[in-house]
Amino acid sequence: MAARQEWSMSDFEIGRYIGEGKFGKVYLAREKQSGYVVALKVIYKAKLEKYRFHSHLRREIEIQHSLNHPNVLRLFTWFHDEERVVLVLEYAARGELYKVLRAAGCFTERTAATYVASLAGALAYCHKKQVIHRDIKPENLLLDIEGRIKIADFGWAARSNAKRHTLCGTIDYLAPEMIEKKAHDYAVDNWTLGILCYEFLYGSPPFEADEQDDTLRRIVRVDLTFPSTPCVSSEAKDLISKLLVKDSSKRLSLEDIMKHPWIKKNAEPSGSCIKQREVKKTKIPGLKSEQKDGSILF
Ligand code: AMP
């Protein structure tokens, strides 16, 4: 894997600071020649060395760079200098799904179904490319300016302990076979989709408990109950029940998720539940020009 040496920091106008991960900072930026808006993830080599993360990052960059799907955050390119590795990423203007979900409490069936269908499509694409287990949990999912969901984390940042503990304990999304340390395959993603679908509709994951050990026990027993509020349709519950199945070979396939009556009835084919006039009203703080298509540029 050779980095595109022709890119450097001087090709970008740096905008506002977006946030910080374990290995560095994320900034809004604009490629000077094209005006294309991106997010730059600046990772400090010293930190990578401290945590022995070099080869891990390299592998994850290779994976993400090879993926091109509307619901997978694009990694356009990357470059490095003495101190830093810089990832040039698609900018997700509406930020973390996690925060949107916490602010809303829970999503409507239309929104939830649209996200689940988008994720099922993205995962089917990843699986076809032999890319498994995307660690899909709300804090690894971003929303673009049109409200389309993007799988944003390809393992390397999510596997950092800081992220796991500070943002929220991630055991809620573990499939039973992982807890029981059995061999696991693509079907762990289908389990996680069931967990996310539940969390989108009810506001919290299904096996949540005060003690982590209790959560683990509830997952292994598939101790699934549906509260009476908020009121959720029986079709949605049917889909969740067909994904949260202990025997991984019996879980609904990604193709069958797309054919499920609840998805057919509720999911927006465009992948977005936001009206165009709301999109137009959305300002990107710190930047003036219109977004341009970066896929031509990189
Ligand atoms: P991370 O290093 O991935 O943990 O990201 C640090 C912060 O930047 C988090 O709040 C992310 O949601 C945000 N962030 C990371 N990548 C992007 C992106 N491509 N677009 C918008 N926000 C991002």
Describe this structure in words.
This protein is α+β, with helices and mostly antiparallel strands. The chain folds into 2 domains: 82 residues, Phosphorylase Kinase, domain 1, CATH 3.30.200.20; 171 residues, Orthogonal Bundle (Transferase(Phosphotransferase), domain 1). Helices cover 39% and strands 15% of the residues. It is built from 13 helices and 8 strands. A 5-stranded antiparallel sheet has the order 1-2-3-5-4. The chain has a 3-stranded antiparallel sheet with strand order 6-7-8. A hairpin with a 5-residue loop joins strand 7 and strand 8. Helix 4 packs antiparallel against helix 7 and helix 7 packs antiparallel against helix 9. It is globular. About 5% of the residues have low confidence. Bound molecules: adenosine monophosphate (AMP). Adenosine monophosphate binds next to strand 1, strand 3, strand 5 and strand 6. Keywords: ATP-binding, Kinase, Nucleotide-binding, Serine/threonine-protein kinase, Transferase. This is Aurora kinase. Its EC number is 2.7.11.1. It comes from Paspalum notatum var. saurae. Belongs to the protein kinase superfamily. Ser/Thr protein kinase family. Aurora subfamily.
